Amino acid sequence: MLKAAFPGSFDPPTLGHLDIIRRAAGLFDGLEVLVAENRRKKYLFSAEERAEMIRRLTHEYPNVSVVICDTLIVEFLKKQGIQVLLRGVRGMDDFSYEFELSMMNKTLDPRIETIFMTTDPKYFILRSSSIKEVASFHGNVSAMVPSLVAEALAEKYRALNY
Ligand code: ADP
Question: What is the pTM of this model?
Fold first, then answer.
């Protein structure tokens, strides 16, 4: 039984994230999506909102679960008995950051194996921060996120009086 964890901010989840989740669900027996809750980071959506969106978007995959993680990822993985940490990479910039992060995690816990999955070329420009920027100006993000996320973004920025 090989289980992997896919941690991230998912603020909000994009088609790029969902593509990685779909492909990983086909590779591993189980996949746990860890929604990061870091008190030092500012998010547009609460951890519960982000987790709920991913739950709704992945309900068709019986081996995918979604949990909120407010501790160090390696600590969380140790508690859950998960050894594989999955990260998506869009290009060299992501890779150099992700590579350093994986070295850090390996130092913290040598049992952790980081696996990188390359993005689908269709999604390599998708980035939560740029999508928020477009949505904040009421731009059309329907080719970048699932419709429930596009609606949640529009509603969020409406509530914030953008
Ligand atoms: P964080 O900002 O905490 O690094 P993100 O929510 O941006 O996390 O992303 C979570 C994971 O998904 C990261 O490994 C990131 O590289 C990956 N990812 C984000 N967007 C894409 C995409 N379009 N294609 C493939 N992987 C992606």
Answer: 0.95
